[in-house]
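Quick illustration for those who missed Monday's session on complexes.
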Amino acid sequence: MQKRQSEDQIFGALLGIPNVHPLSVDEDETGLRVEVETTITEAVCPQCGQPAVATGRRAVELDSAKPFRGRPFHLTWQTRGWSCQNPACATGEFFEKADWQFSAG
Ligand SMILES: [Zn+2]
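Prediction with zinc ion bound:
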């Protein structure tokens, strides 16, 4: 028996971007447009290691160097913002970073 995969795992494998959850997929004359968020729902401050509180979203637009099914491939990544709650820490707000390099193809 094969292990059952989640839709997020299947989506990530198809598009070559791991640990993301699709928000929307749209295809028009400019190519394929996919909007994603990461599956990460918790974060710690990169400086002090304290748990951070979610603050908001920031859209990051990425264009793939590699076409998808022969068409240009655009990714909108809704990054999560976080705020460090440690008063002794200088970090304040920060945005998540991905361990994948989408535009490098
Ligand atoms: Zn901190």
